Amino acid sequence: MNMPERSSLDIRQPLLDSVLAGLVALVVFGPIVGVVLDGYGFNLQPARVAWIVGTVMLGRFLLSLFLHSASGRGWMQRFEGSGAGVQVLAPDYRSHLRWIVPLVLLAALIFPFFASKYLLTVIILGLIYVLLGLGLNIVVGLAGLLDLGYVAFYAIGAYGLALGYEYLGLGFWSVLPLAALAAALAGALLGFPVLRMHGDYLAIVTLGFGEIIRLVLNNWLSLTGGPNGMSVPAPTFLGLEFGRRAKDGGVPFHEFFGIAYDPNVKFLFIYAVLLLTVLLVLYVKGRLIRMPIGRAWEALREDEIACRAMGLNHVLVKLSAFMLGASTAGLAGVFFASYQGFVNPTSFTFFESALILAIVVLGGMGSTLGVVLAAFVLTVAPELLRSFADYRVLLFGMLMVLMMIWRPRGLIRISRRGFAQRPGVAP
Amino acid sequence: MDGIFLQQLINGLTLGSVYGLIAIGYTMVYGIIGMINFAHGEVYMISAYLSAIGLALLAFFGLESFPLLIFGTLLFTVCVTGLYGWTIERIAYRPLRNSTRLAPLISAIGISLILQNYVQLSQGARQQGIPTLLDGAFRFHVGEGFLQISYTKVFILVAAFAGMAALTWVIHCTRLGRMCRATQQDRKMAQILGIDTDRVISWVFVIGAAMAALAGLLITLNYGTFDFYAGFVIGIKAFTAAVLGGIGSLPGAMLGGLILGVAEAQFSGMVNTDYKDVFSFSLLVLILIFRPQGLLGRPQVTKV
User: Fold this and answer.
1) pLDDT of B256-286, one tens digit each?
2) CA B246, B250, B251, B254 torsion: positive or negative?
3) pLDDT in tens, A289-300
4) Same domain, A337 and A247
């Protein structure tokens, strides 16, 4: 707190706020935190309640004090004025960060030669979530459609590989495009009837759809093996397998090239293919948002009525975003299944959808760089900070609420370069 | 009419009346600020824990008689859950009143994750339960089989309808109810006429949470067990009920709840219990496709 301001500060209001907040916290947290059910009896835990109430009171006091000070008032005003959408940059604007993309690419190319197997798997997981985040970013960030059952399309991809291998004998490479198609088709089937209606319904219908898929995968024992899951084949390189010994008398990868057997090679291969896919998706997305369809997504997000008045077919525009998002999730699902070597329904709960949504929200809706960073932060950080694992969901929830209050457009705002006037043309 | 059908009809009605109570929370909030309160299912889950805690505390202090025990627990659960409703609105929705359309929805998802995880962390992940408080049942002979209606089910039906009647009275005959209806019709106009709409919105959240609290107590009495994940599925089902009846309409929420409850009970009695949730969610999708305004709702017209 700045000292000169303090004399003019009214200390009574913050104190009152703090006491009120403390009382509310006592009633709200008291019973659930303080009385822990144990069979039909209970254990009292007053110390935890005291901690929470104390923290709430102190936090409320400091917040109130800050908001009553001059800098706090200024901060509040800036807050309310930050509703503008896309930040438009000057036509000749060159970002200071333009060297970062080649640097990251270089790091991505060099890194596998030094990484341990554990680090490699963590990074692969991070890349899978980058793919999911990019896909959901098209749906939520660009088109403004809240999809809470995104994990269903991820499950379609993953189970597509498992079921395709089990019943049709398909491998990684043939399923990869098929899964993207199947997920897009499922997205179209689900989206077409729902997208005609008011936007909020889509959220709850997709939520229901996500649960339907999970419940069917869990209950259809004869097809999917239920909670026991299914095994998934490893990817192959031009038909060469990465195992120590190939099945059906084939030649494994390491024998064909005459190198020593290394179990990491499988993960290196997945990493390479995944990296290429992510780069491809990034490129496609970068082109799409400059095309009429991308502009239409964003316009529809900002004002649907105006767009329809201008003659945009809102159902088709939304449907294209929804299907593209779904097919990206299908791709991610195939990678996830072959990386794990095994799928079961517990990987596709609502929490996964919420995690992907958190990635999009934190990264900035519509912002590509933000989503890539957020995907790594939210998936790699919990791997490194195992001791906080219990609090992960709590932190995600708080993050979502705080981000919506503080910066509903995400940490990294979407920015777009403006157009220069052509010389010789009247403005 | 055979025995199984009647038995499932009774089960469905009790379940459906409770769905209706939770659906009221969705429908009132949607009617007044036009957002889907995703955290409402979690409020129900909290109230289930609170009612078990209330029962345990009251029993510990030596309260034995059933009416007093239930009444005390109900009072405790409704008050604390109502405060939850108020706090959630104050923290997560009010600052977003003028934000983008997606912001309150995402914030609601955040609150729902917070509540789930907070209950899991403080109460443990295992299933909790309460002892059976009301023993015994009415038995009737129907055809070859017989029909059994436990006292708990009768109590649930009576209490749920009493709760709905009380709410109808509040909405139609009190000053607060009049303010709610005015705010629902036109928020800006109500504000101009001197209604503190922020306070009305807070009250709507408190009323919705109180109804969810009644539902939490009743379901806990019926099934006896619950866990921190219980709010998710019941939340979607209650939302289905609200949409089925026409979102924004109070009688619609109650009617939708009863229909959904009966349909689900008949489905699990005749076809398969494993897929009863799939059945309810598919029903939701189908209603939204073919009759998005629900049974008693009016079609939405967007004005510029």
Assistant:
1) 899 999 888 888 878 777 788 888 888 887 8
2) positive
3) 888 888 898 888
4) yes
B109 HSE (CA, 13 A, CB side): 27
As a whole number of angstroms, the distance between CA B21 and CA A266 comes to: 54
* Same domain (yes/no): A121, A70: no
Any domain includes A85: no
Do A142 and A212 share a structural domain?
yes
What is the Cα–Cα distance from A244 to A265, expressed in whole angstroms?
A: 11
Helices A368-384 and A117-136, axial angle in degrees (round to 10): 140
Partner-chain contact A33 B122, CB within 8 Å:
yes
Quote the tokens at residue B183.
Answer: 């705010």
**CB atoms near residue A71 (< 10 Å):** 12
Cβ of A27 within 8 Å of Cβ of B83? The answer is yes
Coil, strand or helix: which one is B207?
A: helix
ipTM computed for the complex: 0.81
**CB-facing half-sphere around the CA of A161: CA atoms within 13 A:** 32
Interface test mutation site (partner A, options B102, B128, B277, B301, max chain A beta carbons within 10 A): B102
Contact list in B for residue A33 (CB cut-off 8 A) is: 122
- Residue A217 neighbours by CB under 8 Å, 6+ apart: A155, A159, A224, A226, A345, A348
Are residues A152 and A32 both part of a single domain? no
Residue A165: which CATH number? Answer: 1.10.3470
pTM of the model: 0.83
Look at chain A and report how many structural domains it folds into: 2
Of the candidates A201, A185, A195, the residue with the CA atom closest to the CA atom of residue A314: A195
Q: Which CATH architecture has domain B3-290?
A: Orthogonal Bundle (1.10)
